[in-house]
Amino acid sequence: MNRREALKLGALSVAAAATMATVTGCNEGAKPASASKAGKKVCKHKIVVIGAGFGGLTVAKELKKRDSSFDVLVIEKNETFMSCPFSNTYLGKIAGVNLGTLVHDYAQPVEANGYEMLHAEVTSIDRSAKQIHTTKGIVEYEILVMSPGIGYNYKGQFPNWSDEKIKHIQRIAPGALIPGKEHVILERQLVDMEDGNVVITVPSDVKYRCPPAPFERASMIAAYMKKEGIEGKVIILNATNKVSKGAAFKETWKDLYADIVEHIDFATIQDVDPVSKTVTYHLADEMEDKGYKVKTVKYSVLNLIPNNISSPVVEMSGVETTTDGFKKVVMNGCSFQTKTDKDVYAIGDVVAHGIPPSGQTANWTGKQCADEIAHRLHGKAFELEVKKTPVKAGNVCYSMVSDNPEEAIMVTHDFSWDGSLIKGAGHVPKAPSGIYRSSATAKATRDWYGGIMRDLFA
Q1: Using an 8 Å Cβ cutoff, are 337 and 179 in contact?
Q2: Cα dihedral sign, 290-166-201-365
Q3: What is the widest separation between alpha-carbon atoms in the chain?
Q4: 1-25 tens-digit pLDDT
Q5: Which candidate in 42, 101, 189, 377 could, as Cys together with 138 as Cys, close a disulfide (CB 3.0–4.6 Å)?
């Protein structure tokens, strides 16, 4: 058995061992339940949360902590939780990280915290009737919290692609910013790969989930290729010249992966040919007399990260959104209540506040939103603390960048209210050595991930 076969066997074994949670909800005897309408089962809950990621699990847990009598239901389409934060270490084959590090069952937090969960897909939202239509029946609510995460805007970015091509690209070149099979597909492709290039594309709209993610991924894949002696490059086709934690990543690439990582600015993707395994693109600063000069790069593995958009759940709700491509939810002042509807709240990636999208930020917004709702239901006045006092390190985002030794970089964001939005001011610190990456930050990365998993699932 060679190293690639061993790695594949290990990943499959872990996947097979992952548990599928059976939890409560509409079709499993939710409380309180009402009679059927038009042949569909209906249940009603005081507070309904859509999405069981970092934000949704946090707000559900925090609401029950504030008042155990609160009737809270979480609607989640996936049977198991999979973490996107820390997932790049899985792609990089960092020691001790496997699929089981990222996958968790939902039964544990349901039992520990006392809320209920329905595994179903949301198909529509009727705010006038305060109903959520799902694949397993209708859920009525008094207060709705949306934490649905993101979707991919392939059609907006590649208007000439057919639906069939989009589905094909999703299968063979997954974006891997949405939890689930995408990370498993990408990992399998890396394990199966012999020599050749890994091409990573960065969205043309700089508003996308976890801006450091593509660059951390490039670093981790470069570390994997270097460790395994795989000949080839990690080529980053960046539609802009923006790199989150840019100085820190570029320092790492120069010091550790100068012959592996190639970062190309202003590279606009034109097309992908899965047969020849090529990506065509043009550079914004290379205008010819009759158009752009088209360039082609061949890949063995392609991680095509398309432009991001708010989950379709947001559009279903009909609340006001921003006019940009992401369509984030417009908030009601210094709040996580939507501007459109006092009974609908939003947290995580989809909020239009000027704070960075990350797992830590979703956790923070979930706690703030739970405070808002709890005070409201208890008939007490409430104002987010950030409106009066800046929140130091409201977001801390770590990125692992090397292996043997493990090293990482980080960014912190202080949150403050500017009169119209909650905004984050970022700072990327250097280590005492005078460079950005350090083993101490790598240890902090592991500690942060372990801590937030305990926060969500304990």
Answers
A1: no
A2: positive
A3: 69
A4: 344 444 444 443 444 343 333 344 5
A5: 42
Residue 35 has pLDDT above 80, yes or no: no
Per DSSP, the three-state class of 439 is helix
Contact assessment for residue 429 and residue 422, using Cβ atoms and an 8 Å cutoff = no
For residue range 208-220, list pLDDT tens digits in order.
999 999 999 999 9
Buried b (16+ CB within 10 A) or exposed e, 398-416: bbbbbbeebbbbbbbbbbb
Question: Mean of the pLDDT values across residues 171-192?
Answer: 96
Cα 360 to Cα 267: distance, rounded to the nearest angstrom: 30
CB-hemisphere CA count at 13 Å for 311? Answer: 26
Q: How far separated are the first and last CA of the chain, in Å rounded?
A: 39
Measured distance CA(158)–CA(279) in Å, rounded: 13
**Given the structure tokens 């770590």, which residue do they identify?**
398
- Report, in angstroms and rounded to the nearest whole number, the Rg of the chain calculated over CA atoms: 22
Residue 44 β-bridge partners: 140
Q: Which residues pair with 37 in a beta bridge?
A: 40
Q: Name the pairing type of β-strands 122-126 and 391-402.
A: unpaired
Cβ–Cβ under 8 Å, residues 87 and 183 = yes
Whether residue 397 contacts residue 360, with contact meaning beta carbons closer than 8 Å, is answered with yes
The helix-helix angle for 359-377 and 439-457 (nearest 10°) equals 30
The single residue listed with the structure tokens 């397993």 is: 136
CB 25 within 8 A of CB 137: no
Distance CA 323, CA 344 (A): 20
pLDDT band of residue 289 (cuts 50, 70, 90) is low
HSE, side-chain direction, 13 A CA sphere, residue 15 = 13
pLDDT top residue among 292 and 118: 118
Contacts of 177 (CB under 8 A, 6+ apart): 84, 150, 152, 208, 209, 210, 213, 305, 308
- Of 256, 261, 260, nearest in space to 404 by CA: 256
